[in-house]
Here is the input.
Amino acid sequence: MTTLEAPRVTLADLGGDRKRTRTERNVRYALFGAAFTSILISAAIVFSLIGETWTFVSQVELSQLWTDGWFPRRGMYDVKTIVVGSLLISAVAMLVAIPLGLGAAVFLSEYASPRVRKVLKPTLEILAGIPSVVLGFFALSFVSPQIVQRFFSEATAFSMAAAGIGVGILVIPLMATVSEDAMRSVPHALREASTGIGARKITTTVKVVIPAAVSGLVAAFIVAVSRAIGETMVVFIAAGATGGSLFSVDIFGPGQTMTAAMASQAAGTDQVRGEALTFQSLFFVGMLLFLFTLGLNTAADRFVRRVRQAY
Here is the structure.
């Protein structure tokens, strides 16, 4: 009798098909290259800001950073004018986007039938595809005269309130989509448990679903705020004060944000270069905007990690 010997397994056999292994390795290298390239691009943007920002900071007098307004061609670089303007317009935008966006998200997640959701959600997301310049003209030609000036007689044709409402309309789809995804990720077992003890639909939504999805809702809020602060064309068109702006906290008058200040000055780059530190001030404002957004996202990330619930 002869016995059959089991085939010997070598390390090469355990390694799998060489062609497949080589393909997987190439894919891994390609994905790593894509990720590393994005980091390089981000670093290049920051370094491009640092050089001119340092030139501005090292040459400007501190008194020029705290004046009566933002007029770079006149040597007036009042930081608080554009920072406060950005915050005011963003606050108005959030007053529009949060209730409408969150309300739409709650309806789509908790109340809408599959058929209604299939129609309503793409319709809502159409707003995200509207160019911001179109919304800027809409804010100037409709929102300002028909809403802001009609209810507030002291409002001017160009106003931060109209610009804020326009930015809010632009941010609604973003707020609604991210919030709705966060609420739909909450396990249905929590809803069923709440319903099982006799809770109403609204009670389940407010006291179970929203607290469980709070990390995603905060992320949606931060993304929406960052989008509002970074919006340019709506503010550039509807808020006025494109040549400069005096410091003001009146949302019914013209104002200027950090992004609009950059856009208005960069419109004539050749002339800007010949105006003292006006060209460098664009990079200074860009660095302020970058640091502000970075700080906002860092604080939000820490908050989300603290309140995040894993299921």
